[in-house]
Amino acid sequence: MHPGQTAADRYITSFEGTNYIGQLERVHTLLLALWEEYFGTVRDHPLSEYETDLIDHQLYFLSDALFNIILDMALDYGDSSFRGVGPFLEKAKEAEKAIECNKLVEKARKRQNAAKTDWERTEYKARVDALAALPDDDAIPALKALLEGGDKA
After folding, report:
1. Are 35 and 43 in contact (CB under 8 A)?
2. Fewer CB in 10 Å around end: N or C, the chain?
3. How would you classify residue 93: left for phi > 0, otherwise alpha for psi between -120 and 50, otherwise beta?
């Protein structure tokens, strides 16, 4: 609960948080089942290598799931203090650039395919190939210029 929350805020959060509660409950259930299976009962034999590997994979999976739930919650609530938020936002910015670059390359390929002669098509293809090979930060403005006609092949 955040300081200064109103009853209306808590009411809204109760509905938005339901998804997180369900996800957290599933992680808890799986962790409890894992503990009960391997550590909750008296064992008459040590864990096998297979069981140890299985526990390792299950714990890694559950830890990853828990991390992602907390990240989703932090993003939803605008909490930048969680360590996963910064890298997530940086990755999202890079993804936006990649998507924009791919769309521009696709538009350039359509223009390339619409060229009237084989020579024009070949020349335009070479230009688009060269621009597509650049890092997104360099390729985006160059592709825009090419598509706007400011940098013709």
Report:
1. no
2. N
3. alpha
